[in-house]
């Protein structure tokens, strides 16, 4: 099936997202926060908001415009994600997001779709931007344009400056999906098998959130307001119950990261980085 290149420029309607501290805490739990990270889990301490929470208010708007490009939903997977933070995300409030299809690309065997979003607060001030790269595994070869070159971020050959290892739960995807991503690929065994997987896989954005937590704790000293941007490309699936190892190499205001699945020595996220203010 061909994706429609004429969909580029398609915008969503404004999507309003009202939330309180409970929504922030649910997200933190969904991306693996533990009791010793109480600043992110207890309203008596804010709670602090993880920068990767930005994908939650932007989710509905992003996926509103995706169907405009066509494509087979059974082949849809997340290819890459980035977030740019312009001001600290409040633990409660009202946000408005508009998304736009920025590109439709032919990867020959597959196809990709890039969606950009802008999210503003009640004052109209820009809080954060996100970019979503969606891969259609069952489409492609429709004589569309190739994707533009992407930045390659590689860890140094030296030992990492920090390392974090944590095991996801078997219920991790079921918990994360309560933040808004209800794709049955992450819950329904039959849907997962129809999509080519043995069982439901973890959301790429859940792995992204685990990586973001590690970056806040180790690269930003536990202060999420020190994060200016974070991004990475999804390359391998993670199964609920897998152990994630996140490592970071500090290079000035940038921390290059690597995420691997300990059980299979695979890298589910590549070209990963966090930029500090």
Overview of this protein structure:
There is one protein chain. The chain has 277 residues and is an alpha+beta fold. 17% of the residues lie in helices and 33% in strands. The protein is built from five helices and ten strands. Strands 1-3-4-5-2-7-10-9-8-6 form a ten-stranded antiparallel sheet. β3 (93-106) and β4 (111-120) form a beta hairpin.
Molecular shape? globular
CATH architecture label name: Roll
Compute the average pLDDT.
Answer: 95
Backbone structural class: alpha+beta
Bin the helical content: 10-25%
Q: Regarding quaternary structure, how should these chains be classified?
A: single chain
Q: Mind describing the biggest β-sheet?
A: 10 strands, antiparallel
- Radius of gyration using CA atoms only: 18 Å
- CATH class reads Alpha Beta
Count of individual helical segments: 5
Element string (H = helix, E = strand) = EHHEEEEEHHHEEEE
CATH fold name: Thiol Ester Dehydrase, Chain A
Strand content: 25-35%
Extended strand count: 10
CATH superfamily: Hotdog Thioesterase
Tell me the distance between the termini.
43 Å
Low-confidence segments: none
**Could you say how many structural domains there are in total?**
1
- In spatial order, strands of the major sheet run 1-3-4-5-2-7-10-9-8-6
């Amino acid at each position: 099936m061909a994706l429609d290149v004429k969909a580029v420029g398609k915008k969503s309607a404004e999507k309003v997202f009202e939330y309180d501290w409970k929504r922030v805490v649910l997200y933190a739990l969904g991306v693996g926060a533990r009791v010793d990270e109480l600043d992110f889990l207890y309203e008596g301490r804010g709670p602090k908001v993880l920068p990767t929470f930005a994908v939650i208010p932007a989710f509905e708007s992003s996926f509103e415009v995706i169907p405009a490009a066509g494509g087979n939903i059974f082949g849809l997977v997340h290819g890459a994600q980035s977030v740019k933070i312009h001001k600290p995300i409040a633990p409660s409030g009202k946000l408005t997001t508009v998304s736009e299809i920025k590109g439709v690309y032919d990867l020959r065997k597959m196809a990709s779709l890039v969606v950009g979003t802008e999210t503003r607060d009640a004052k109209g001030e820009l809080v954060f931007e996100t970019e979503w790269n969606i891969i259609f595994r069952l489409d492609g070869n429709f004589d569309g344009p190739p994707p533009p070159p992407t930045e390659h971020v590689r860890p140094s050959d030296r030992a990492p400056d920090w390392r974090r290892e944590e095991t996801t739960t078997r219920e991790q995807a079921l918990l994360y999906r309560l933040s808004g991503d209800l794709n049955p690929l992450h819950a329904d065994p039959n849907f997962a098998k129809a999509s080519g997987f043995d069982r439901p896989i973890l959301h790429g954005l859940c792995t992204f959130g685990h990586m973001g937590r590690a970056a806040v704790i180790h690269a930003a000293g536990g202060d999420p307001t020190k994060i200016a941007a974070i991004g990475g490309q999804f390359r391998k699936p993670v199964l609920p119950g897998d152990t994630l190892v996140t490592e970071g190499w500090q290079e000035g205001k940038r921390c290059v990261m690597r995420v691997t699945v300990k059980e299979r020595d695979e890298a589910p996220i590549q070209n990963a980085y966090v930029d500090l203010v």
